[in-house]
Amino acid sequence: GDSVTQTEGLVTLTEGLPVMLNCTYQSTYSPFLFWYVQHLNEAPKLLLKSFTDNKRPEHQGFHATLHKSSSSFHLQKSSAQLSDSALYYCALSFQGGSAKLIFGEGTKLTVSS
Amino acid sequence: AQTIHQWPVAEIKAVGSPLSLGCTIKGKSSPNLYWYWQATGGTLQQLFYSITVGQVESVVQLNLSASRPKDDQFILSTEKLLLSHSGFYLCAWSPLGENTLYFGAGTRLSVL
Questions:
Q1: Do A34 and A50 contact (CB within 8 A), yes or no?
Q2: CATH code for position A65
Q3: Nearest residue of A to residue B105, measured between CA atoms
Q4: I need a surface site. Which of A3, A38, B2, B14 has the fewest CB within 10 A?
């Protein structure tokens, strides 16, 4: 079946170090991949969405590349900031406006000074 | 611009009591609507979705029900709350034909 796997439940970094959060997926059809970010006591917000033309989406210094060969959509940032501390969810959906969106288990990122 | 409003912001309810949570989307016609639930420290679990008025599909059975009485309104309810219903309830919408979800601010429910 279709699924999303985030292998790290918790990532702890020092400010200024690079960020990489892993996301791999299994999908029957060609999917769209998303990263959502949820700060404490807030609702999740869209951070990034994969493009159909293989462009690399970027937002707030974060970027992710969809690699179909390895079924991955890892989230990266060159330099972590304290304000990046949050829950990050990778999610998968399908073309055509399907109502099915599958979330991974989430990765809690904690950035300290 | 589209706005999504959830109510109430928070609820404290007794086990066995009824519950009704609501969600309204303004500025977008015929959106797909969703209910998600998040246990404390847990992931996002899709409960229901609706692609049109009067039609609701259940994804997970949690002794909850949902209805879409109007194009812009989505209601989550139960007649008898369980302790396990505690958590964060999120309404979300996506534009017709698209797959990006936009979440409301959520309702935090404590069942005692």
A1: yes
A2: 2.60.40.10
A3: A43
A4: B14
